[in-house]
Amino acid sequence: MSKRISLTEASRQAPRILARGDSKLLDEGAPPTLSDLAGALQFALGDGRIWLNDDRMVMMQTASLGQLRKEMIDAVGIDQTRRIFRRTGWYQGIHLADVIAKRFQQQDLTAALAAGPRIHTMEGFVKVTTKRFEFDGARGHYHGEFYWHDSTEAVEHLTHFGVCDCPVCWMLIGVPSGYTTRLLGHPVIFREMECTGMGAERCVIVGRNAEAWDDDVPELQEVGLTPVRPRGKPWKPPVDLPAKPAAETPSVIQGRSPAIARARRLIERVGGYDEPVLLLGEPGTGKELFARRLHEIGRHPAAFVTVRLLDVRQRGHETAIATLDSQFERAQGGTLFLNDLLALPRPLQGHLALRVQPREGRRIGFRVVSACSGQPREAVQAGAFRADLFYRLSLLPVVLPPLRERRDDLPMLVDHFLTLHARRHGKPLRKIGGAAMDLLLRYDYPGNVRELSNLIERGVIFAEPAGDLEISHLFAGLEEMPEFVEGLHARGVIVRRKPDGSAEGRTLQDIEIEAYTKALTEARGNVSAAARALGLSRAQLDYRLRKLGLEPS
């Protein structure tokens, strides 16, 4: 006898087959719930950052937003202000849709659309109640009706201008339009049928596919779309390898934070000169990458030659000199990169000083770029490094910031390394799990960008193909975790310390044993069921149970 299942269950089991949905068929507690969404919001206290998944957020008083609205209306008029705010809300909705896509990996479009009102409510602008929505991807059809309570935009407009004869929740109405359009792949426009700013008890919101509105749709023109725009494909999680770019520059410097932007700007400014450059920064900050970038944008068509001075010093004096001389010859017409400058022993410093010093107006034939991880001035003052050589090589110093001082670059760097290593190892992956991303955003990275790259590469190798990267894939227990982390739970979630800072003396192994024992107890000794509950394969759990001596009798 065939087993009967509900339409909701069928949509969950075959999310890519069903292109239609109805909120009435969705469970009230379908994920992501408000609690799930709240877990994606984190405050990095003392660090000046608030993250919604990997998007940086800010806290702003509604009175300040109201004052901004008022001054814009006074300056450019109500029509222009409406267009600007509506367009701002549109792009906010797109970003929120991307959060749902990346964080929760929704394959059920009905659940993903239902998450929109929840995340909109969580942001604090308005309380959203879903009356009903339905969609049919094949026909390009969408219809949704919602109630808004306590709209901050309506309250602020009433405060400054009183009751209006038109809807006033301009930025708020742009959010569901951008959000729904992003997920469905064809333009959907929301409008206020009733508005608190017009004296109504609540705002009534209706969304339709753009062609369904009988009049003109100026909202589309505001964001550069037209009603006849060809429909795209609804979002679905990627499970294939990232496509290799047609032209990939090997020395692209990732990041947009002020600290990395300043370093990149200095490199570009000195690129056309032949004078020596000294790169200063902690280990792993990307000094060799910056040196290669400097070589690429400079006027040095010949080779880029790297000399690791720590390796040179381990050879005998004569061999070391011969090695340096050979590298000098290779670098003619190009760039000589001296890595770990302070590792060069004092006797070899004299030989290097002679080779990099122009004589009788003649250039040395190559550009010198040096890298230093320590404190060169202290080495000069202590007599460990020649002052004349230091001042010659440090004519153009560029300081590279540690990763902990450029946290705004973390989402971009994580995406970059995930794509890079997934392609390198031929491992298709979907995304980094929410808890794992939270920890990546909080971690201090003593090894800087190199350590981040290693963490992501480790996760790519350890994770299941087409699966998600979780904490247990990225962190091996060797890292110095943030203060609030006690250890890594077997399920890949963060175990926090007690409020008094104590960790109850438990080790990571203690936490693992507790998790496995509990899962086996709840599964009544069924190892396969326990493995599913823990998010592991049967083979993985068998191995760990044998290792810890927990095999069920």
The helix content, as a percent range, equals 40-55%
Distance between the termini: 36 Å
Radius of gyration: 29 Å
> Uncertain runs with pLDDT below 50, 5 residues or more?
1-18, 228-232, 234-241, 484-505
Please tell me the overall pLDDT: 82
User: CATH superfamily of the largest domain, called what?
Assistant: Trafficking protein particle complex subunit 3
Just give the CATH class of the largest domain. Answer: Alpha Beta
Q: What is the beta-strand fraction?
A: 5-15%
Word description of this protein:
Helices cover 44% and strands 15% of the residues. It is an alpha/beta fold. It has three domains: 216 residues, Trafficking protein particle complex subunit 3 (Muramoyl-pentapeptide Carboxypeptidase, domain 2); 144 residues, Rossmann fold (3-Layer(aba) Sandwich); 144 residues, Helicase, Ruva Protein, domain 3 (Orthogonal Bundle), CATH 1.10.8.60. A hairpin with a 4-residue loop joins strand 5 and strand 6. The two termini are 36 Å apart. The N terminus is likely disordered.
Features:
Rossmann fold; 44% helix; single chain; 553 residues; 5-stranded parallel sheet; 5-stranded antiparallel sheet; alpha/beta; Muramoyl-pentapeptide Carboxypeptidase, domain 2; Helicase, Ruva Protein, domain 3; 3 domains
Give a quick summary of the entry.
By secondary structure, the chain is α/β, with parallel strands linked by helices. The chain is built from 22 helices and 17 strands.
